[in-house]
Amino acid sequence: MKEKFKITNGTGWLLIVLLVMGSCSNEDSTVNEEDSAFEVAQLVSSDEAESISEEIATIGEDVMATEAINATGKSLYRSNYLPDCVTITKVVTDTTRETTIDFGEGCELPNGNLLSGILFLSRSRDADAATATVNFSLENFSFNGVAVEGGGTLVRTASNENGNPQSDAVASYNGVWPDGSTASFEGNRTREWIEGYGSGYWADNVFLITGKGTYNGKLGNVHSREITTPLRRELSCRFIVSGVVEVSRNDASVSLDFGDGSCDAKGELTYPDGSTEEIFLRRFNK
């Protein structure tokens, strides 16, 4: 990872944090209004969008941890989650801290996700505050071929009631999938870092995620999505490994169970009539 560092009108350390959240979807098959309220293709696209939000959050958390731990002066910390193809540029003024995270035309993360474009982060300079508010945005950003625009605001708490770092964010985005289908999505999310903080090894990091949001697919079908059992994200896996999400449209709802902790692309749907179906999530199954 290449870093460019600039300090203007003063000295100090940087504390950068990003959490991007929001639940989203595209609908990659034609759906008539007479059809079922829940098409598997819609739910799979929604889950892929969840993965986009989660990956952006992970990147922000990694930058935050690096800056916060190095600011203590106890050690030179680097998680190595962001590879050398990422360029980070930091600017500090008397009142602000800004970071540009540039993935160039394509940069593959350790979990195999391919990102391009830029994440921007901006916050006030008070690094000693127990909480910090960060504004974030995207420029020419893509995730595995999905173009994403938008941004939001995050409030980060250095230590919650459990003694863990936690972030609460609201965000709004638009996505365009490789097949040309589109979706808009917005929501709020809380993300607690429960294992591995400061270990210096990214693969032992674990997060619990709660929150809810809505997404609007290309045919105007609006679904709401609420996490009813916290989602568990282990950075050693590119998928959510457990937790339950309830997806609702009109007066009907289904639940999506991510399983027992195994690292796979499978999920189990439970329909309103109690029947279940195992599905593969995202456009890739490995």
Can you put this structure into words, describing what you see?
It comes from Arenibacter aquaticus. This is Lipoprotein. There is one protein chain. The chain is mainly beta and 286 residues long. It has one domain (2-203). It has one helix spanning 40-71, and strands at residues 2-7, 87-92, 96-102, 107-108, 114-124, 131-143, 146-157, 166-176, 182-195, 206-217, 222-234, 240-249, 252-260, 266-270, 276-280. The protein has a 15-stranded mixed β-sheet that branches. Strand 7 (146-157) and strand 8 (166-176) form a beta hairpin. It is globular.
Keywords:
286 residues, mainly beta, Lipoprotein
| Helix coverage percent | 10-25%
Largest sheet: 15 strands, mixed
**Gyration radius from CA atoms, angstroms:** 19 Å
Distance between the termini: 26 Å
| SSE topology string | EHEEEEEEEEEEEEEE
In what range is the share of β-strand residues?
over 45%
Give the topology.
Blueprint: E1 2-7, H1 40-71, E2 87-92, E3 96-102, E4 107-108, E5 114-124, E6 131-143, E7 146-157, E8 166-176, E9 182-195, E10 206-217, E11 222-234, E12 240-249, E13 252-260, E14 266-270, E15 276-280
Parallel strand pairs: 1-2
Antiparallel strand pairs: 2-3, 3-5, 4-5, 5-6, 6-7, 7-8, 8-9, 9-10, 10-11, 11-12, 12-13, 13-14, 14-15
